[in-house]
Specification:
This protein is mostly helical. Helix content is 83%, strand content 0%. It has one domain. Helix 1 runs antiparallel to helix 2 and helix 1 runs antiparallel to helix 4. The two termini are 22 Å apart.
Length: 126
């Protein structure tokens, strides 16, 4: 899961930088996904390099993923409103938040699945 964490971190980093540059580099809040991406890359690398503390770093990473998802849900709601024909302020921001919500939700689901499988394997070997 450490490599998966790094991969999702890179995706969020690219989303944040792409959103910032794509909107004219005027809104620093567009870099929020990049900040989450950098943290995921950091904790993924720490988990890969330190097997003794892998569980700790992965739990920190999945918590960041969950916070990222919860923080980006309002963007999903705005995109749904846009799809229903309603005008919203800053549609590009809503789209970026929706992309972040999708990425972080998939990441959290994969992590939870991995944690459950790891626990089952430990129970079988104990």
């Amino acid at each position: 899961m450490a490599n998966t964490t790094i991969g999702f971190g890179v995706a969020l980093l690219l989303l944040g930088v792409g959103g910032f540059v794509g909107t004219g580099s005027e809104h620093p809040t567009a870099l929020i996904p990049a900040a989450f991406g950098i943290l995921l890359i950091l904790f993924g690398a720490l988990a890969a390099k330190n097997p003794a503390k892998r569980a700790l770093f992965m739990h920190i990473a999945v918590t960041l993923g969950l916070v990222g998802f919860l923080g980006s849900v309002p963007g999903v709601i705005k995109v749904i409103k846009m799809m229903n024909g309603e005008a919203i302020a800053r549609p590009a921001a809503a789209e970026a938040q929706t992309a972040m919500a999708a990425l972080t939700l998939i990441y959290v689901i994969l992590c939870v699945r991995s944690f459950i499988n790891a626990r089952r394997e430990r129970a079988l070997t104990a």
